[in-house]
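SAMPLE LOG
Freezer: B-3
Tube label: C17
Construct: single chain, 408 aa
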Amino acid sequence: MPNSLCRSCGAPLVTTFVDLGLTPLANAFIRPDQSHVTEPRYPLHAFVCDQCFLVQVEEFAGPEEIFTHYVYFSSYSNTWLDHCARYVEKIVPRLGLTSGSRIVEIASNDGALLRFFQQSGLDVLGIEPASNVAQVAIDRGVPTKVAFFNLSLALQLREMFAADLIVANNVLAHVPALNDFIAGLKALLAPRGTITIEFPHLARLISERQFDSIYHEHFSYFSLKSVEPALSRHGLALYDVEELPVHGGSLRLYVTHSDRSLPVSSKVEQLRLAEREAGLAQIETYRQYASVPPAVKRDVISFLNEARRDGKRVVGYGAAAKGNTLLNYCGVGSDHLDYVVDRNPHKQGLLLPGTHYPVYGIERIFETKPDYIFVLAWNLRDEILQALAEVRRWHARFVIPIPRLEVL
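STRUCTURE (predicted):
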């Protein structure tokens, strides 16, 4: 990415945050009959902007390649469904939303969140570029437009309506044309409307060694420090923020038009201060992070090699993108894990990108009774440990690789 410019402020990118080598696209699962085909691998090298402190990776594969057919479906995570239900219960009364209000969710996936709004009698529209995922939402009765969100689409929609609430959960990181996207949010928002934006918090990625959250479809990694100027540039202002436990620690921003002059919650300044104290306004904090992945790799490979020497069977839980980053970066070989399981039937029967581990349903664990379950989707550890409580009957143990390797 040398000689490239920051996708937010346009400054030259010269400082490495972390270099994870060459990896395949994290969600580019392959069919078993394609296992002999050499997959394309791209540099997974994250830089930090010295001016606005946005961490970002280069765009090797565009959104059209990554997101038009997708294997992630929101409804297969109970943790996420609970999160959505609580959000709707809170936001409807807070914003005074009624049957006449218009709610738009960008990157609405299979409609998991919007269904909760529908149960409250509210008018919704999902915007989702992955046609296979959007069709699931449509079949469930969730109005969904199959498209990428940008300023052009926002202006088309604005001719028909303005949105009282725009929900943008875990999508900002997926947008290479960041300024165009934010300009679209501004254009579609009603004069007294609110945008809520959720994304994994860079501060947690740094402090909890979550480097496996970096993969090619996540073009950017945000802190409050880096996102506020990007919003302000387009006439949007933050008036409240929440810290959330989902996805390893996320932020939820409450955003409106800059000229609306809403009172700003004290939590905004508290978080600004916390980020400053964590060093997020100092370039040296980012430079130091390069030492984290090698340390995690040593622990992971050491455990897996020891388990193999002892004749123990190890399987992976969660065919997650973050797991694919971890496996490929660490160089986990074909003899380290027996297989991987996942609740999502759209991933079952396929092979993981790069490592080519086969993906099965969860029942496979109870059929084969492995000694260790290596939790690749560590952000769902509580949900997974609860779902697999029965494995204790044959004394199986769980391995959590992030932030530090634990055997439970």
